Amino acid sequence: MGLTRTPPPRTHGLYLFTEDGDHLHVGRCGLTERAKSVGKGHSNFRTRLAGHSRPSSGHNQATFAWRLAFERLGAAVEAMPRTRVELQIHPPFRVDFLCQKERVTAMECCVVEITDDFETYLFEAYAARQLGTPHNVWATS
Q: Within 13 A of 93's CA, how many CA atoms are on the CB side?
């Protein structure tokens, strides 16, 4: 099903998904507010990248695959359920979401270890801007 690759390190920083030479998405892993509030530590590349591509990952883990499915389905999404939880189990979306997780699994992934969380926030935006990654979105929810 997926591409076999060397497992990423158990450190944190930034990662870049590339497909056919095109840089598509820069992401980060590190200390989140949710983890901090419950006394947990940093997320790491291994768990974050697995979340992006594991078939069982939901909308809040496979966020890049979610965006790809949403964009690929375009206007058809308008006629589908409105909440993320409902949408991820809606048959047409669910099938495409799974295909996009497989697609992400096959992409080249490069990681850069950055131990300072503030630097990861800055570098994520800088890298996305410099590389022209089309799937990074900076709108707030």
A: 24
Residue 67 falls inside a structural domain: yes
- Measure the CA–CA gap between 111 and 16, rounded to whole angstroms: 6
For residue 129, what pLDDT band results from cuts at 50, 70 and 90? very high
Is 138 a domain residue?
no
Nearest to 46 by CA among 13, 102, 5, 8: 8
What's the predicted TM-score (pTM) here? Answer: 0.86
Among candidate residues 46, 38, 36, the one with its CA nearest the CA of residue 13: 46
Number of domains making up the chain: 1
Domain, as residue range, for 23: 13-131
Q: Find out whether 13 and 120 touch, Cβ atoms under 8 Å.
A: yes
In a domain, 139, yes or no: no
User: Which of 48, 69, 58 minimizes the C-alpha distance to 124?
Assistant: 48
On whether residue 25 sits in a domain, the answer given is yes
